[in-house]
Amino acid sequence: WKVGLALSREGNNPFVLKYFTTNSNGENAVILMEYANMGNLQNLIETNKDLSLPIIRVIMKQILEGLRLIHEKGLIHRDLKAENIMLHSPLGSGRVQLKIMDFGLVKVQKKAQQSTHMTVAGTFPYMPPELLLGSKEVKADSKVDIWSAGILLHQLVSHQFPFEYLSLQSIISFMIEKKLNRPTNILDEVLWNLITKMLSFDGKERISAAEALNHEFFTREKADEEIPVNAFRLALSAQKALQKGDTNINKYDLDSSFTFPYSDAKELINKDP
């Protein structure tokens, strides 16, 4: 919770759940944090609905930018999973923000992007090979979070994990064989390329959050062409609000490529904020 509180106080990362204050009582701590009013990413995955490329793109762009800012601070989340990514629609905003939460397993690096020793911890289906196949303590870096984000991307697109079963034995076998099979419903070559780079079995070869955001899946001309009209309208409204002195507007509100319209989210998750 100390990490969550520190990130919240800095205030430059809207893609983490805000921690307001905490009160320690012996071994227990009561934490007052932001309420996310649209559930979590697992709720969306469990609908088994086919998501359009623009929806997948904006979801992953928010997650990866959140990770980039976390990693920039020399922090490694280590337990990124669907249940730890909340969805929140600020009342009257018309948009949905994804927010990373649960910093209980965070590892602090001495220097950002530098490998560090860490204990093996996390949730098995989202843990990378360097942790799951390692000893009790291994040397790894922020790329462990990119593997987890790659698993999330694979789930969002294919409705399944890249391994056959969720048993530890099945996951380990998948990692030892180092064979990432392409699901039949992943037709977009650029998207599949991004998935393979995020799910590189070799942590050294795996792309970083910053590199992922610069991948063709996010930067190609088609990505701009596919941004929903509602996203452009919301970004324009944010620009007008900023000009009128609204201090709650941030740079991501002004960028339509980061804008996830509430109207689109509501069609996927039937939940009112």
Automatic annotation (TrEMBL):
Recorded GO molecular functions are:
ATP binding; protein serine/threonine kinase activity
GO biological process, alphabetically ordered: regulation of autophagy
- Name one cellular component (GO) term: cytoplasm
Keywords for the protein's UniProt record, in alphabetical order: Kinase, Transferase
Q: Which Pfam families match?
A: Pkinase
Q: Which domain of life is it from?
A: Eukaryota
Family annotation (CDD domains) = STKc_PknB_like
| SUPFAM superfamilies the UniProt entry points to | Protein kinase-like (PK-like)
Q: Which residues form the Protein kinase domain?
A: 1-218
InterPro entries reported in the protein's UniProt record:
Atg1-like, Kinase-like_dom_sf, Prot_kinase_dom, Ser/Thr_kinase_AS
The protein's name is Putative Serine/threonine-protein kinase NEK
Q: Which organism is it from?
A: Streblomastix strix
